[in-house]
Amino acid sequence: MPETAAPTPDSLATPLSQAAAVPLPDADALAGRFPLTRSPRPASDDERAQVLSDLHFGSVFTDHMVHTRWTRGEGWSGHQVMPYGDLALSPAAAVLHYGQEVFEGIKAYRHADGSVWTFRPRYNAARLKVSARRLALPELAEEDVVASLVDLVRADEAWVPSGEGESLYLRPFMFASEAFLGVHAADVVDYYVIASPSGAYFTHGLTPISIWVTQDYHRAGRGGTGFAKTGGNYASSLLPQQEAAAKGCDQVCFLDDVTQTNLEELGGMNVMVVDADGTVRTPRLTGTILEGGTRSAIIRLLTDAGRRVVEETISLDGLVQDIRSGKVTEVFACGTAAVVVPLGRLMGRDFDVAITGSEVTREIHDRLTGIQYGRLEDPYGWMYRLV
Ligand SMILES: *Cc1c(COP(=O)(O)O)cnc(C)c1O
């Protein structure tokens, strides 16, 4: 029973996309909110060059990190950029027991003229607030979140790579550090940002991935934390991800937990479907789906390019039929880390279908990365200069 498609994509007017559209002060005006204490032992130029010449994802980190702490009563204090290093944490820290944590993922891109930019930072800052609220964590003001990125990237600018498709991946996160085993919203919370130079997700063009649609597990449920970017959602996706790998698939896709028939998203990426008539469809935001900034930007780009974009219920059965009949020509996943990934194969308990198209996927990839890397004009004011 697909619901009627809305004429205008809802995502053009969600609270997150509206928050993201509020202009930010220039980075120069935000800089300095997190004063820098320089690392006594930064990587040497040679060590850094070595790392930057062979980039992967998420395994090496820059010389510094952001930290600030919140306590109930005092609020946030002690904003700083400090040397990167291990944390001293009480074994009783609440996050280790009850998972009270939220995070973000955003990239810094080096443009050809050497300047460094990020993509819609207020979107991520606003989403961190939304996530924090759901996890009963304190909110950090959007401008402070953006300022934390400015100050960290300015301290570690030399770590922003300049190769094709490379970036400095920024990971803001906030967690309950209070040493207390009672179950309550913590009275002490820490916010950090770490940065990791990252290689291109694709080195030889857009390579399609295979998907296992799990009919046994869900990553989120109604009234739960699916719309929040929190570690627990990822924890719940790991076993099904292992199951997907055992079936020979790259990634797992989840269905809704109520009807167990409708497509939701991958463990860390949203999903879009391209019809033969050019319409692009994506599951509506039901509360169990994470509202991706990439999803939101793609909806805007496609809509403005004159394409019909609809957010609707997409049933797995219908999708498999439509792929078989040729009514659906492309399926892709999207998120900050990979930008867009074509899905080449969809497998589940009783189906296994191949998807061969990737024309629209490629078009979106080129347009979005073109804007992010400064090769194409940015008519939306999405890019924010950090350095
Ligand atoms: C982060 C994330 C996405 C993608 O969000 P972007 O803002 O596009 O990076 C999608 N789904 C889940 C579950 C996520 O955690």
Report a brief summary of the structure.
The chain has 387 residues and is α+β, with helices and mostly antiparallel strands. The protein has two domains: 168 residues, D-amino Acid Aminotransferase, Chain A, domain 1, CATH 3.30.470; 182 residues, D-amino Acid Aminotransferase, Chain A, domain 2 (Alpha-Beta Barrel), CATH 3.20.10.10. The chain is 27% helix and 27% strand.
What can you tell me about this protein's structure?
This protein is an alpha+beta fold and 387 residues long. It has 2 domains: 31-198, 2-Layer Sandwich (D-amino Acid Aminotransferase, Chain A, domain 1); 204-385, D-amino Acid Aminotransferase, subunit A, domain 2 (D-amino Acid Aminotransferase, Chain A, domain 2, Alpha-Beta Barrel), CATH 3.20.10.10. The protein is 27% helix and 27% strand. It contains 10 helices and 17 strands. The chain has helices at 15-20, 27-30, 45-52, 94-98, 121-134, 142-155, 231-246, 293-304, 316-325, 359-372, and strands at residues 64-71, 75-83, 101-103, 106-110, 116-119, 167-176, 188-198, 209-213, 251-255, 263-266, 270-275, 280-283, 309-312, 328-335, 339-348, 351-354, 383-385. Strands 8, 9, 10, 11, 12, 13, 14, 15 and 16 form a 9-stranded mixed beta sheet that branches. Strands 1, 2, 3, 4, 5, 6, 7 and 17 form an 8-stranded antiparallel beta sheet that branches. The N and C termini lie far apart (50 Å). 44% of the residues are buried. Residues 1-7 have low confidence and may be disordered. Pyridoxal-5'-phosphate binds next to helix 8.
